[in-house]
Amino acid sequence: MPAKLTPSYSQTSAQTLNLRQQELLANVQREGFASVEQLAAQFRVTQQTIRRDINLLADLNLLRRFHGGVGLTSSAENMAYNTRQTLLSDEKRRIAALVASHIPDQATLFINLGTTTEEIARALCHHRNLRVITNNMNVASIMSNYQDIEVIVTGGVVRARDGGLTGEAAVDVISQFQVDFGIIGISGIEMDGTLREFDYREVRVSEAIIKHSRTVFLAADHTKFDRPALVKLGHLSQIDVLFTDQAVPEQMHATFDKIKTKIMLA
């Protein structure tokens, strides 16, 4: 049976994923595809109930309906930003609080794109004398209201769907700095430790952040493990600390045995 996930999904409609729906989502993310008949037998409910679950998850762009079953969404496109904002919000806040507790006052930071990194920006509200360079306009908006924190926004092309700044201008600005901590999010982590994103332009910026940070923190909730995404960013071996909310899959233990990346559980 798949590992049980803590119910935490919320939308403005107050609709939540129940435990069965969360387990169904985790199962398909792990296996890639499942038939309606298989899922009905696994969860001991009717096929009609499973179809309703699949319709909900597909409407939220978390999974994709296929004839007779359900599979992963395209590896070429991420789910909508407003969906990502509310998905696993409690887990993201816990991760953010843990990351923030490892950032000292007077530090210099890069913060990149993502809803988890935006939660980290919120969690840093009580820090003092930080200097933050970001290509995330939402992070800049959040942190510009904090006392004693200087925010530098990179140039670049604005990605309308989430306020991200990408392109050569963003890379050029980041490359001028060498900071204490680079804080990044990620779309997918393969079992062999490969890091993946959906947008190659975003990858270029994250590569620059990794290169120009003395310490790299990766913040990723458990759904990012073995999640397909199109573009290779790098490898977990380039990350100093992985902050996540659940133990890493057993299939990844051999990968972590070969690298020096630490794991911090929120």
Précis, in short:
The chain is built from ten helices and 15 strands.
Structural class: alpha/beta
Our count of helices gives: 10
N-to-C order of helices and strands: HEHHEEHHEHEHEEEHEEEHEEEHE
Overall pLDDT, averaged?
88
Protein name: DeoR family transcriptional regulator
Domain HTH deoR-type: 17-72
Keywords: DNA-binding, Repressor, Transcription, Transcription regulation
Organism: Undibacterium curvum
Task: Describe the protein's topology.
Blueprint: H1 19-31, E1 33-35, H2 36-43, H3 47-59, E2 64-66, E3 69-71, H4 81-86, H5 89-101, E4 108-111, H6 115-123, E5 130-134, H7 137-143, E6 149-153, E7 157-159, E8 164-166, H8 168-174, E9 179-184, E10 188-189, E11 194-197, H9 200-211, E12 213-219, E13 231-235, E14 241-244, H10 253-257, E15 262-265
Parallel strand pairs: 4-5, 4-9, 5-6, 9-12, 12-14, 14-15
Antiparallel strand pairs: 1-3, 2-3, 7-8, 10-11, 11-13
Helix pairs in contact: 2-3, 5-6, 6-7, 8-9
Labels describing this entry:
Tscrpt_reg_HTH_DeoR_CS; elongated; 7-stranded parallel beta sheet; single chain; 266 residues; 10 helices; alpha/beta; 3-stranded antiparallel beta sheet
